[in-house]
Design a protein that fits this description.
single chain, globular, mainly alpha
Length: about 120
């Protein structure tokens, strides 16, 4: 699948997932930017330990706490916060942390390596 075709697929999937989200443009842009980096700056892609949004990076630099905000993950990283809340009663927190990520989405657009290690490259 060509880069342009995958970009269009990303846009369609993100819009489908975020119908009621006002930050759809950001949710589209984040995967597209990451896909561009992966394909055009491969050495940088391989060296990156974790990918962060600017607001999360600033919070990390100020506090030393590498925790993502729910707002950022939902509006810019396509995290499905409502899926997370559906499992609030679950006792297994590891499953609860991962339940809001659509792994098929990341695999389909060519960024499946971001889901390795319980999504360690995009969330703590």
């Amino acid at each position: 699948m060509s880069f342009e075709t995958r970009i269009m697929a990303v846009m369609k999937m993100v819009i489908q997932q975020n119908k009621a989200t006002y930050k759809t443009n950001e949710a589209i842009n984040k995967p597209n930017r990451l896909l561009w980096v992966k394909e055009n700056l491969q050495e940088s892609w391989m060296m990156a330990f974790r990918w962060m949004d600017l607001s999360d990076w600033l919070a990390y630099r100020a506090t030393g706490d590498d925790t993502r905000s729910l707002c950022t993950t939902v509006s810019k990283w396509t995290y499905l916060g409502h899926a997370h809340m559906q499992q609030v009663d679950e006792k297994d927190s590891r499953n609860m942390e991962a339940c809001g990520w659509d792994d098929d989405f990341w695999e389909e657009i060519g960024l499946g390596d971001l889901i390795d290690g319980h999504h360690a490259k995009i969330v703590k």
